[in-house]
Structure formats: structure tokens, C-alpha cells
Amino acid sequence: MPCRVLTRAVSVCVPRARLRRICFNPAGEMRSWELLQATQPEAARADGVVSGKVEENMKELLELVPERFREFLGPGNLLRGHPPVCTLQDVVLDLGARPRAFFGKQQLVYLAERHDVVVEQADLDPALAKLDGKFGADNRAGMDGSLHRISAMRAKSGQIYGLTLRVGRAVYGNTKMLTDILLAGTESVLVLGSPGCGKTTIVREAARVLSEARLNVVVVDTSNEICGDGLVPHRSVGLARRMMVPSLPHQAGVLIEAVQNHTPDVIVVDEIGRQAEVEAVRTVKQRGVRVLGSAHGDLRSLVKNGMLKG
Fold this sequence. Notes:
Elements: E1 3-4, E2 22-24, E3 30-32, H1 33-39, E4 53-55, H2 59-62, H3 67-70, E5 90-94, E6 100-102, E7 108-110, H4 121-130, E8 140-142, E9 149-154, E10 160-166, E11 170-172, H5 179-184, E12 188-193, H6 199-211, E13 217-221, E14 241-244, H7 251-262, E15 266-269, H8 275-286, E16 290-296, H9 299-304, H10 306-309
Parallel strand pairs: 1-12, 12-16, 13-14, 13-15, 15-16
Antiparallel strand pairs: 2-3, 4-11, 5-6, 5-10, 6-7, 8-9, 9-10
């Protein structure tokens, strides 16, 4: 069963000199990118592509941010000259360092005006109390009913001294350019990209589209990042079923278990990259099951990676 490597691009006009960046709003009308950010921030996206309905529900995630830093992530962001909150990607809270947030690539915003304001243990403690017992062996935690991810940095003693709060978004309609491949074909699909570029968002929406096409879709969800935390999968995956993975080393075994126990038409898995996982995916395909997966890198790195392209 072949695996198709797909390269399709969406172009936007990037501002150079006096040119204005343009994009399309949800109604399909061409608009100034800056105007859309100011008038419809919920529709604007950092990459300039407006694609269907976006569900993010950031309220619970932002409650983990200390109150004294949270005001820099509120409605007044645009007045400070910062990117709109709807483009927020990560909030970084490291003990002894300035609190900061990333809004897409190389768009860094400090969450305090003074340079001497740093994250203290008292800032981390309330968030850690809410997340007590939720961190797995991979130092990742989720929030029930949401797609957000919280990752921890630990000292050798086990103490957590840093948190990365990653915003999880469900983007309905972002796989329209793949519809012919997803619904009309039998090929497996590998989504490639750098960290934070939206691979998981595409894989999640593809799982929903395939499941609502009456295919038996099983998601092997290592960090609960595709289907969210909690026993009930997030509604953004449609009718897809989810198999949780105890820890990263068990991912390959759960892939085989999914085929043996649940007769799927399609298996969805995020972040393939280790030898055992590649071999497990190859076994799944040999048994006649389509695989929809993602991996870090690009087409050039895939060609050079004998393990992944095998």
C-alpha cells in the first residue's frame, strides 16, 4: 500500500516595503491582513490562512498563567502593539527568567514591562497544584475537555522549574485541500513539518473527516494531544475512537494492538520518529490498514531519513 508524500502550498502576500499583506476572510472576501487582525481577530491566523471554524477555548489555559502576567494576554494586546491573542502559540514560565509568550515564529512578547520581573516559585505553585498527578512519563499533561498541552521541565531531583503552555486548536475545514486523497484514495498519508507548524491540527481534522465518512478510525494518542485529555475524546475528532498510550515506549505496541483488537480502516498517529514506531506502522500497512501520521521535518529530510522513508 503506497504512502503518498504530498506537497501543496497556499500563498499569501507578505509585506515588503509599502506592500500590504492580504488574505481572505471567512466570507471569501479579500481583505487587508492588518485590517482583519483589528476587526476580526478571531478569524485572523498567524500564517495568513483563514480556514473554516476555529475552536480554541483558551480561558482554562490562561488561568494557569499567574494573574500578574495574564493582563499581557488580554484584550489590550493590540493596544500595546502586540499580536492578537488568537495567534498565541506558547506561554513559557521558567523559574528565575522573564515570563514570555510566542505568537508564531519569532514573535516574542514579554509578559512584564520591567526587565527585572521574573517568574518565582510562588507563580508556578498554583498551576502545579491544578496539574498535580496529571504529568505522565513524557512530562506532558492535558486539561479535561480541551486540546491544550502543558509540558514540564524537571531538575534531577524531580522538581518542576519550567512550564510550557501550548495552545491547542481545533480548526474545522483545514483539510479541504486533502479531501480527494482522504476520501477517494486508499493511500497512507504522512504529514511533515517543523514543531508548532500545525501537524497535529491537520491530523486531528483528518481523523474527523474520515470518521464521518463512515470509516472505522482509531487514534493512537500518545500524549492525548490529538483527542484531548479525559476519558471522552474531544468532539473535534468526530466519531474516531481513541486508544491511550501509557508512555512513549509503548506507542509501537499500541499500534499493533489497535489492528489486532479493533479492526480499523484507518489508524491515526502523531509524531512518528523512532525505529520501533516506524516498524509498527509498516506492519499496520502490510495488514491492509491505512495510516495517517505526522513526523518532524520536511521532504528533504524525509528523503535522507532511510528509517522513515522505508
